[in-house]
Write a structure and sequence with these properties.
Blueprint: E1 2-8, E2 11-17, H1 26-34, E3 44-49, E4 56-62, E5 67-68, H2 72-84, E6 92-97, E7 100-109, E8 112-121, E9 124-125, E10 142-146, E11 149-157, E12 161-166, H3 175-183, E13 193-201, E14 204-211, E15 215-217, H4 221-233, E16 240-245, E17 248-255, E18 260-265, E19 268-274
Parallel strand pairs: 2-3, 4-6, 12-13, 14-16
Antiparallel strand pairs: 1-2, 1-19, 3-4, 4-5, 6-7, 7-8, 8-18, 9-11, 10-11, 11-12, 13-14, 14-15, 16-17, 17-18
Bound molecules: 2,6-diaminopimelic acid.
Length: about 280
């Protein structure tokens, strides 16, 4: 199977052009290629498929083989792949996802995509997932106990579920310890992506993320959007936010008039390769 290894701010996936390749068991292939010792090494698998309702379809799997409804860093890389590898010459494209059709603007330099702006759509407060105790115009603040400690979170969906938690010290967090306890907490029937955030000023936040199905990643596009929406709702930032992640910065804007979130960031090709997946059983 031919693949292309790409990343968005270090959130790396194995990309497969399924106009040419066929994958019969994506969850098993995702687990295999993601293994950083026995496979290629990645945060998951992203299949680029034909679509009946958009220019392309993004089918995304986490490293544990679970399917994600949407992937912000991933969809920017899909846009770069389809332009740079000649599947389109358009600089405005649409991509079908389980989280709805997304619309992307591509910036091209020297014939290659260097930056992508994604209309991430309408943020939803996860009332069914995390009971919201007040209307969205007020502070959204839900207590949750993990490891005997009470945290306060804001639940936001960007197609996939997120719990946003504000802390004073992001760097010192033991994510390996508390991350899985949030991810698998009984409050989250679909599990959860959890973002830990420190606000630097009204235009800048820094965050780390424990992703559902992949653990700590260097960046999370949908997570950065959820953090921006939560920070604006909690009156901690203005509507344009630079989100600083371990892998780099994303620019997020929540256009309250249109009620749509826009994410702008890079996409990078690392290498092309071929791997034998015929022996994968499970
Ligand atoms: N782990 C996420 C999917 C990947 C999201 C993230 N890598 C991004 O860039 O948005 C989930 O299961 O909902």
């Amino acid at each position: 199977m031919k693949f292309t290894k790409m990343h968005g701010l270090g959130n790396d996936y194995v990309y497969v052009n399924c106009f040419e390749e066929k994958i019969d068991n994506p969850p098993a292939v995702a687990r295999f290629v993601s293994d950083r010792h026995f496979g290629i090494g990645s945060d998951g698998l992203i299949m680029i498929n034909p679509s009946k309702t958009a220019d392309f379809e993004m089918e995304m799997y986490n490293a544990d083989g679970s399917r994600g409804e949407m992937c912000g860093n991933g969809i920017r890389c899909v846009a770069k792949y389809v332009y740079d590898y000649g599947l389109t010459d358009k600089t405005q494209i649409s991509v079908e996802t389980l989280g709805g059709i997304k619309y992307l603007d591509l910036t091209v330099e020297d014939g290659k995509v260097s930056l992508v702006k994604v209309d991430m759509g309408k943020p939803e407060l996860e009332a069914d997932l995390i009971p919201i105790i007040s209307e969205r115009e007020q502070v959204i603040d839900e207590p949750i106990e993990v490891d005997g400690k009470e945290y306060h979170m804001t639940g936001v969906s960007m197609g996939n579920p997120h719990a946003v938690i504000y802390v004073d010290d992001v760097k010192g967090l033991d994510l390996e310890k508390i991350g899985p306890k949030f991810e698998n907490h009984e409050r989250f029937p679909k599990r959860i992506n959890t973002e830990f955030v420190h606000c630097i000023d009204r235009q800048t936040v820094e965050m780390r993320v424990w992703e559902r199905g992949s653990g700590e990643t260097l960046a999370c596009g949908t997570g950065a959007c959820a953090v921006a929406v939560s920070s604006i709702l909690n009156n901690l930032t203005d509507t344009q936010v630079t989100v600083k992640l371990l892998g780099g910065d994303l620019q997020i804007e929540w256009d309250r008039e249109k009620d749509r979130v826009f994410m702008t960031g890079p996409a990078t090709v690392v290498f092309d390769g071929v791997i034998d997946i015929t022996e994968i059983k499970e």
